[in-house]
Specification:
Elements lengths: L6 H7 L1 H8 L1 H8 L2 H7 L5 H32 L3 H28 L10 H13 L6 H21 L9 H11 L1 H18 L4 H27 L2
Helix pairs in contact: 1-2, 3-11, 5-6, 5-7, 5-8, 5-11, 6-10, 7-11, 8-9, 8-10, 8-11
The chain binds 5-(aminomethyl)-2-methylpyrimidin-4-amine.
Protein name: aminopyrimidine aminohydrolase
GO molecular function: thiaminase activity
Catalytic activity: N-formyl-4-amino-5-aminomethyl-2-methylpyrimidine + H2O = 4-amino-5-aminomethyl-2-methylpyrimidine + formate; 4-amino-5-aminomethyl-2-methylpyrimidine + H2O = 4-amino-5-hydroxymethyl-2-methylpyrimidine + NH4(+)
């Protein structure tokens, strides 16, 4: 009999997969955005890429304290010590990521100290800050964390697929998030999120789903900001 999936049925495949099916349209909007498709088909406007680069540097600086807040929640709320290690590895790579943004900006002639955060970026950073509150459950925060990373992984992996015409100058940027190692790290985050979603009360489950949708909307707005600014 067809109908709504029960919670037990959803948990069998993992809540994240269920939500990805349920919210396919917005997930595709975030991972196959026209900006990403323009990189993939080689028609990208390099000014748009430079806008993205400067804005994302600001975002990543706000993302690092968010990841730190997830680490604190894992330390307090998780019963599996390996989760802290996954989150810690992410913190270590953020250090590399900030260094990469600085050297990439120098190559493209983007003065990072002069970049002013645009509204979509400010809104997204404010949203991240709201998730840092100790009142936000670990399950909700780890779901958001997975979604933020997974959108970049899926988007940039698309630009590396066979047949893509990604300009040589942008391939390194795409490899940063589109490589297999980053994919495996996203799978680890997804497993952690699924494990906690599978045992959380219904009200927290609803909060996590709403938070996931907010992340996807912010990601779309973030791409729009870069794409529209050319
Ligand atoms: C907007 C955005 N979203 C996600 C990521 C991947 N950490 C990022 N760097 N920037």
């Amino acid at each position: 009999m067809e109908g709504k999936e029960t919670r037990e049925e959803m948990e069998k495949s993992g809540m994240i997969d269920t939500w990805m099916r349920k919210h396919r349209l917005i997930y595709t909007g975030a991972t196959k955005h026209p900006f990403i498709l323009s990189i993939r088909d080689g028609t990208v406007d390099f000014e748009a890429f430079k806008t993205w680069l400067g804005q994302d540097y600001i975002f990543v600086r706000a993302f690092a304290p968010f990841v730190a807040s997830v680490l604190i929640k894992a330390w307090k709320e998780s019963d599996d010590s390996s989760e802290m290690e996954v989150i810690l590895s992410s913190m270590a790579s953020l250090n590399d990521e900030i260094a990469w943004f600085k050297s990439e900006a120098a190559k493209w002639g983007v003065q990072l100290s002069e970049v002013v955060p645009q509204k979509a970026n400010q809104d997204y950073c404010r949203f991240l800050e709201s998730l840092m509150s100790p009142d936000v459950e670990y399950t909700v925060a780890i779901t958001a964390f997975w979604a933020i990373e997974a959108v970049y992984q899926a988007s940039f992996a698309l630009c590396l697929e066979d047949g893509s015409k990604t300009p040589a100058k942008l391939r390194e940027a795409c490899r940063r998030w589109g490589n297999d190692g980053f994919g495996q790290y996203c799978n680890s985050l997804q497993k952690i999120a699924n494990r906690h979603l599978g045992k959380t009360p219904d009200d927290v489950l609803t909060k996590a789903e709403v938070t996931l949708l907010r992340v996807l909307e912010h990601e779309v707005e973030f791409w729009n900001m870069s794409h529209g600014a050319a």
